[in-house]
Structure formats: structure tokens, C-alpha cells
Amino acid sequence: MTELRYQLLPNRDPEAADVLVLPVPHELTVSYRAGTHNGPDALLAATAQLEYYDEDLAWSPFQHLGVSVLPTLEKTLWERPEDFHRRLGEATAALRRDSLLLCLGGEHSITPSLVAGRMPGPGTVVMLDAHADLRPSYEGSAYSHACPGHRLRAAGHRLLLVGVRSLMDAEAERIEADAGIDCYMARRLRQSAAWDALLAQLAALSGPVWLSIDMDVFDPGQAGSVGTPQPGGLGWYDVCELVEACLANPAVDLRGADIVELIPDPAQVTDMVAAKLSQRIIACWGRAQGYENGPRNGSQTEVDYH
């Protein structure tokens, strides 16, 4: 098997790495387009074409951070969904807490289990998604890709939904009635007042936070190879600005992030968007943690620039 890693970077020892990347190619409940199980490999392969200087943040995170891509975590053939999700939560709970955990899906059903392991107490989940994902169950499963928002709220986490443009009437009613859910619909964010309010809310976050990005939050014209694409959506720089606002605040205790619902794209456009998004998350977290000032734990990396 080919070693999974950020291309051009040596895979660090997980006990010494600053960033832990966990591929979770779980695909069991997709209801439209299949192929999300190939998402982690496609994202990692696309990193071979990334320049490692972050042009917006003006530093090169991979000169200062060590990255370790962990072994893939998959559902076994006869494993029940509830047992797999329990095992996924236990696996993330066992990982070092002083590192950034970045998980690569797979379908969006993995997020609540990741959060359960990394953020067992109440926190805030910032979920960028075209869908509200607030159904208690879908097609007979509480572990569906349509249910992560419901499972997160049931676990006591506050939800900040961003970019939503597809939901059922019952989900809309729940958003209206539940003070623990803030939702910014995609079209509303075209208004400068709504955009500024969202940025202010992200900048004011504190305490434990998890960042979940479903690739269908993007306008399909920019990243269309996803499990359930929807018209409209956010652009690349919109998402970058949201990530930067979320992670810049030193009061935020980021417990981890995930990028989900990528389906490998024959044109490799969506693959590259997801790969560069992973880089931006790492760069924002590293800057907030002070890595701009030099490496920690002997993690400085020689980068073979192409």
C-alpha cells in the first residue's frame, strides 16, 4: 500500500507531529452520488501540486509544523454502524490533545463521532454545509449523512450552520425554535450585514470548537464533485475568510476539523480545492498557535519545492 502522507513532506512520528491527519473513508449511507470513500486519497494526492507558502497569510506553515498522516480508519465488513461510530470516537479520544486533528472523509455522518472523542463536553460546532443535516434519522438510519446536526445537538453542542440552502420544513422549524442553533442561509450571506454579523460571531467564539466543512458548501461552479451538490453556495475566498475568522481568536480551543463529502473529480478541481482548504486550516491554526515564530518539538521540515 502506498504511504498516505502530505505529498513532498516526510510523514512524522505521530508522537512528535504538530498536525495529525486522519483519513476516514467511510461511505455507507450516501443517497445520491457515490464515491466519497475515495475522498481522502484524492485530497492527499492533490497536495503534491500545492505550493507550501500560504499567499494570503504570508508564511510557510510546513517549514515549521510536522505532519503525520495516520493509518486509515474504516468500517469492517460485518461491523454494525453504531459499533463503527463508537470505535471512531474512541480512536480520536486516544490521540494527543496538543496537536491539530484534521479528519478527511468520507461522508458527513462521521462528524458527530469525531467530535464525541475529541470534544466530549459541550462546545460549539461550526458546520459549513449546503444542508441543515438535522434529521433524527434518514432512510432508516440515525447514522446517516443527513443526521450529523441532529446528533451533535443531542450531545449538547451548540451549532453554527453556515451556507445552508437545502432543508426540510421540519428542519426549518427546528432552527427557528432551538436557541442552540444559529443558521446563516447561503443567500442571506450575500447581504453585507449578514456576512459581517457572521464574521463577528465567529470572531467572538471561545472555548472548545470543532470545524466541519462539507464540500457541498461551495458553489458547484467552484467545487462540484460532492455527494449532494446544490445550486448557489459560497466561493473559495468566502470559505477562507470564515476559516480565518474562526481560527484567529486565541480564545478558541480548536479540538479538530474535518473535510467531508469530496468525490474525486476527473478534472481534479474539487480535489485541489479540498487539498488547499486543508492547507489553509493548518496554516490558520499554526499561526494562532505561534508557529510563525519558529518550529516546536524539533518539527522543522525540509520542503522539496517543485
Automatic annotation (TrEMBL):
InterPro entries: Ureohydrolase, Ureohydrolase_dom_sf
GO MF, one annotated term: metal ion binding
Lineage: superkingdom: Bacteria
Needed co-factor(s): Mn(2+)
Secretion signal, residue range per the UniProt entry: none
UniProtKB keywords: Hydrolase, Manganese, Metal-binding
Manner of cofactor binding, per the entry note: Binds 2 manganese ions per subunit.
Any GO BP annotation: putrescine biosynthetic process from arginine, via agmatine
Parts forming coiled coils: none
Pfam families listed in its UniProt record: Arginase
Record: residues binding Mn(2+): 108, 129, 131, 133, 214, 216
Xref: PANTHER family: ARGINASE/AGMATINASE, GUANIDINO ACID HYDROLASE, MITOCHONDRIAL
Family membership noted in the UniProt record: Belongs to the arginase family.
Protein's recorded name: Agmatinase
